[in-house]
Amino acid sequence: MNTVITGFRRVLGIGFAWAIVWLAFWAIVFVIIGLVDPDSIDPGEDAAAAAVLGSMGLLSGVAFGVVLSMDGRGRTAIDLPMIRVAGSGFVGCAIAQVAYLRHGDLGLAANIRMALLLSTFGGIVTIAWLVIVRRWSHRRSSA
User: Fold this and answer.
1) Among 100, 88, 119, which residue's Cα sits nearest to residue 52?
2) 3-class DSSP state for residue 76?
3) pLDDT tens-digit map of 25-42
C-alpha cells in the first residue's frame, strides 16, 4: 500500500512540475508577444490561456508520470536513456491532448496538428525535466 501512495505522489509531483514548466514557458511567450505586438492579445486572453495551458501541463505531466512508471519497470527516470524518457513524455502529452481535440472552432485536422506540436513540446519539456532531475539528484547525493 505504501508503494501505491509513493507512486501516486510521484505522479502528482511530476504533473505539478510540468504545469509549472508549461506555464513559465507560455508566460514568456505571452510577454514576448505582448512586447512585439500588444494588440494581438485580447483582454482576458492571457488568463484563459493560463487556465487551458496550466491544466494541459498538469494532465500531460500526470499522463507522463503514469507512462514512465509503467515503462520504467522499477527503475528511476535517472537510470533510463534520455531518448526513452523523451518518448514517454511525447506519448504522455499526446494522451493528454485527446481531451483538447474538440477545443475551439478550427476543426479536428487543425487541432490534431496543434496536438502533435504540443506533444513535441511535451518531449522537449521532458528533456528539460530530466536534466533538472539528474542535476538535483547528483547534488543531493554529493552533499
Assistant:
1) 100
2) coil
3) 888 888 888 889 888 777
Contact between 61 and 15 (Cβ < 8 Å): yes
Question: What pTM, to 2 d.p., does this model score?
Answer: 0.78
The label of the residue with cell 483538447 reads 100
Question: Is the separation of the CB atoms in 116 and 91 below 8 Å?
Answer: no
Beta carbons of 126 and 89 less than 8 angstroms apart: yes
Please, is 15 exposed, middle or buried when counting C-beta atoms within 10 Å of its C-beta (0-12, 13-18, 19+)?
Answer: buried
Decide: 119 and 90 in contact? Cβ < 8 Å. yes
| 3-state secondary structure at position 80 | coil
* Alpha carbons 111 and 101: distance in angstroms, whole number: 5
Q: Which residues contact 50 (CB under 8 A, 6 or more apart)?
A: 23, 26, 27
Cα–Cα dist 104/16, whole Å: 25
Per-residue model confidence as pLDDT tens digits over 113-130: 888 888 998 888 888 888
Q: Which residues contact 23 (CB under 8 A, 6 or more apart)?
A: 50, 53, 54, 57
How many whole angstroms separate alpha carbon 33 and alpha carbon 40?
8
